[in-house]
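Note to self: user wants both folds in one dump. Writing first protein now.
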Amino acid sequence: MKYQDFEKAVDKLVREWATDPEMAQAVGVIPREQLRAIFDEVRNSTAHELAEKQRLLDNAMIKLHKHYTK
């Protein structure tokens, strides 16, 4: 899944939480600011995790390249 697709899925989920009457009845109405904070936290932590995984992949590729070009 691309990051943009993931972000859209999270956005859709948060919008559903904001408008779902059953959710509102079960947990009360979630303030829009709180939903925005949830969305931002998920988006930011996911972006950080993806960047970290990309850094690890880059480092592994550098080591592999060095091994084969000795």
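First done. Writing the second protein, which came from a different request thread.
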Amino acid sequence: MERSVVLGLFVGDKRITLYQFALLMIYVCCAGWDERHADYAIADISDRELSNVVGLKKDKVGHNRRILEAKGHIALLKGKNRQYRIRIKHPDLFFIKKTGKVSGNEPTVSEYGDTQQV
């Protein structure tokens, strides 16, 4: 994810709390990212499911979702059974597109071997 996007979430008029940031990241992770599909940048996850993931009450998840919408980070689309589908606004900002290899940036992990401790 681009650094300016993350920093932008914590300053200015679109500033969000840590809970809202976590919620937005869950939406980003749950969204479909294949540009050829109709559900591109759309997360289909309920407030109840999210409340189990983030450890907040369902009403608190809904409150934070509405704040994310009001601040322009997501859009709410009608779903089934009075649930919303969450569309990530400006989805291209959330992933850096690879443009090639950075010169002089060779992998060095292999020279140190495995760093996991048993």
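Dump finished. Worth passing along: Residues 3-91 form a domain with the Arc Repressor Mutant, subunit A fold (CATH 1.10.10.10).
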